[in-house]
Structures are given as structure tokens and as C-alpha cells.
Amino acid sequence: MTKQFNAFEMAQRQFDAVAEKLQLDESSRELLRWPLREYHFLIPVRMDDGSVQVFHGYRVQHNDARGPAKGGIRFHPQETVDTVRALAMWMTWKCAVVDIPLGGGKGGVICDPHNLSAREQEQLCRGWVRQVVRNVGPVQDVPAPDVMTNPQHMVWMLDEFERIRGGHFPGFITGKPVEVGGSLGRTEATGYGVVYTVREACRRLDVPIEGARAAIQGFGNVAQYAAKKLIELGGRVVAVSCWDNDDHCAYTFRKADGIDVDELLSFTDRFGTIDRERARQVGYEVLDGDAWIEQEVEILIPAALENQVTAENVGRIAPTVRILAEGANGPTTPEADAVLAERGIFVIPDFLCNAGGVTCSYFEQVQSNQNFFWPKEEVLERLDEKMTAAFHAVADLASETGEYMRDAAYMIAIQRVATACRLRGWV
Q1: Are 348 and 323 in contact (CB under 8 A)?
Q2: Annotated catalytic sites, by residue?
Q3: CATH code of the domain covering residue 61
Q4: What pTM does this model have?
Q5: SS3 letters for 18-67?
Q6: Do 113 and 128 form a contact (C-beta atoms < 8 A)?
Q7: Which structural domain range is residue 114 located in?
Q8: N or C: lower Cβ tally within 10 Å for the chain?
Q9: Is 232 helix (H, G, I), strand (E, B) or coil?
Q10: Confidence (pLDDT) at 140
Q11: Rounded to the nearest 5°, which phi and psi values hold at 58?
């Protein structure tokens, strides 16, 4: 019987390997390989038909030595506490590697918002806040959107938090609409950040980004804006994939001369599901969901969920691929990593590659707390500067030491967090 994938075990394995390289002391290893705090709770919701359904919710705060915990809230039917733990740990490293003064946290609710009305989703959001209101806030733990949550969910959560706390605290949560304290540029930030790192990797590898072909797994927010920015820079996205909730499986949409993002968006629902028949009508090939990984491209961008590039499918990656940019969290298993390293594929690790979202969330938090907001151009310029500097710090270390990019990024991040813990007297 195949052992079920456990994201937290993978995150710990990654940490343990780098802790050994850094010769980290035992107390620091024990402190950093586990979350500092976890909250598990039940959220009863009165459904539209009058019945009460009880949902399981989580908030995990991995480490806050460098600042308030920061991390999204997922609504997903297959959510597990170990996935939330792993994502919280990765958020700690993500904030540290781009050098913003925040720690790592993550939240989740086991649910499928496809099957919930807007009113039911609002009650779920408000119920989540009621369960953790004493343990989150602008100076403790700052949530944000994640898989299948959106700015509207964040507003409902903000409203509930402010109602209970009796004041205005726009810095409590990020990913808000601009009208209620959100930041311009936040919607694009994660996808753009992915491509800023891809651009710099192309420069280092002497791969012209103009004309470079890419395949992207996913067609949610991150994938959409990564595709837009890559095309804007002269690249060509030849394939994207998406999940179809009706069929409970994924499909890949391919067009050899390049996709048109706006065209695809015209028949894509709010969950990132592309209408297959409409796609066929305008000239797209509709392939199996995992066909994205075998396209003859220079750039692969997994931008969906964790555990997508594995020992079973890594061998299907075409010999043309030079760069694998992890737009998703934890998409590559350690076994697949070993193959990628052996093949010389340049991997931009997730907690560096997709850190544009949390970086812009940090900008949003700063603006909300100051009640002073920046123009969109300034936000994106600051984002580019932050992502570019972080990328080159990691790439330089990898070049100097011969370390794999993921290990170099971990070495920088873990060392920063361990130092903060030591300076605070925790270890």
C-alpha cells in the first residue's frame, strides 16, 4: 500500500537536511522543526436549509521570532492539519528569505466553497474569526487569502474582528479590496513575483526571455498573472492546466503559438476552471491534466498545489526545460528534487519564487497601519526590487558554495530565523 503524502513530513525533511549543513544546535533544531502554537477548532454554521453543519478549522503559528505570524487561510475539502503545518513552516522561511519582518503562519477550513452559498461562506468566515480572535491581530498574526479564498472573504473576517475588538484594525488582514484598505498591485503580486525571479534566472543562465516557451500548471490568480507578465516580457505560454470540479479531474489546454490569457479568462470561472468546449472552439488542444509537465518548453511553472512534481512524473520533463519556477507551495518532492539537480534544471524554490504575495501583503499591512497608501507603480517597483535582491542573494550563495538553489535559500532563511531566536534568548 502506497504511503499517503504528508506535506509536513516533507517540510521537516527539507529543514533537517539544511540544519545539518548549517550545523545548527539541537535546541534550535527542535524549536524550528515544529510550530510554536496550533489552534484546532469547530465552526458551526447555520446553512440555508436551516440545518447546522460543523466545519473543522485550523490556525498554525510556526514561528514569530522575526515579527507577527503571516500566512493565508485555505478553504479546501482535502485540507489537513499537516498541510497547514507545512505551509506555516514554509511561510516562516518565505518571509525570512525576502527579509521582511514577519514570521510564518497558516490557516484552513475543511470545506468546499463550490458547494456553499455566499451567505454560508460569510458565516464560515465570521465563525473562523470568532474562534481565534484572541490569538490573531496586527501585532500577533496577520491572515490573508489562499486557495479558494478571496478579498471578499477577507472583508468579512476583518469586519468580524473589528466588531468584536471594537475599533478599526485594517492591518489585521491583507488581501483586502482596495476600497477597504487593500493595496494596489496585490492581485498581481504573486504571479508577477514569480516572473521577476524567472527573468533574473534567464539572465544568469543566458536564456533569452523573449521567445522563451513556458507551461504552467494551474490557472488561478498566480498562474494568470504569471502568464500575463511572462507574455508582456516577450515569452510564450504554450500550455496551462486547471481543475474541473464537475469532473473532479484536471485538464491541460495547449496552443503551440501561445495562449491568449484574456481570451481564456473570458470563459474561466472564479475558481480558475476553463470551459473546455469554448477552449476547443477557439483552437486549444484539451489534454490530460498532467500533460503540462511534458511540454517542450524552456520554463515550467507549477502554480497549483503541493506534491505535483514527483519521482513518478519527473522523468517526463522534456530535455528542453532549463528552469522550473515553483509558483505553488511545496510542488516538488525531495525525490524529484534529486532528479532535477542531476539533470541540471535550475529550480527557483517555492518560498523564494512565490514570495511576491507575502511581500506585497507586508506592503499592504504597512500601508494599512499608517493609513497612507502608495500608487500601484510604486508598489510593483518595490516588489521587483525586493524579489530581485532576494533572488540574487540566494543564487550568489548557490554559485559560491555549489549548493542546490533550494538548499541555499533554506540556508539564508533558517539562519536568519535561528539568529532571531537566539538573540531573543529562546535557545
Answers
A1: yes
A2: 106
A3: 3.40.50.10860
A4: 0.89
A5: HHHHHCCCHHHHHHHCCCCEEEEEEEEEECCCCCEEEEEEEEEEEECCCC
A6: no
A7: 38-170
A8: N
A9: helix
A10: 97
A11: -140, 150
